[in-house]
Amino acid sequence: MKPLRRALLLLLLASLAMTARAQTPQPALELVVLGSGGPGATGRAGSSHVVLVDGVPRILVDAGPGSFARLGEAKLALNKLDLILLTHLHADHAGELPGLVKARAVSSGRPITLKIFGPAAQRARQRDDADFPSTRRFVELLFGRQGAFGYLRDFSAPLTFQVTDIAASTKQPRVLLNEDGLRVTAIAGHHRDAPAVIYRVDHGGKSLTFSGDIDPAGHAALRRLAADTSLLVVNSVVLDPPDSPPVLYTLHTAPTQTGEIAADVRAGQLLLAHLSPAVDGRRDAVQAAIRQHYAGPMTWAEDGLHLVP
Fold this sequence. Notes:
alpha/beta; Metallo-beta-lactamase, Chain A; seven-stranded mixed β-sheet
């Protein structure tokens, strides 16, 4: 075959392949794990996920350290990512937000409106403790005119932030967004002294529910929001008592409790995320505890993992 004819044939085949991919129906929802690790520097990025809607990256859930690099490795287009859901404002869940916002800003020269949702403010319980700012204040401190990264507002593309605070008094599911078949719902969680939010994303008959970091006081809220969810994402930091430090049980959900919740809400799949070294090192015990109650598909999170519910 002559070189020119061969080149034309290859071009035609490539064009047909691209057309076929474009015409292939995309899953209603997909999940990409950017960060699967806990608060320690253990080689995993901190907690972070991207939700794809009809094949398009649209939603960022948390922004843990290291997720900026994992986002680049995932080779996801960012020009449509316009929703950010923050479960709480601990550094291992929100510390990478400036880098990820900058990545979004340079992805397009057009004006960008980022809708950011997160917990409302909470006063310290004791005089020597730190207050937790509202998400609105947190974003202002980062990106406001006098903020640490205020230059990003017009660095590459005009950036507008629409921030919604979710109060700890939100005991019933609250609809945050409902447009074009995409529905985002939230309810207040409980993470000891840190204000926390549980999120659910519904689209095309599928759903993803993110527990965030919650202690037993937040389990009723998780059950309320996660009923019949296609994929339940639960942060897994502790072993069953008494194998983790007692204070951690005032912050996190133990494996047996995870299994009970997944079974109660009839979760289609379970993803164990935000993994601590203790949990990672005793997977057999953790899985056995969960399997006492939940028999459905269960996956251990890894940086870069791609799941379709």
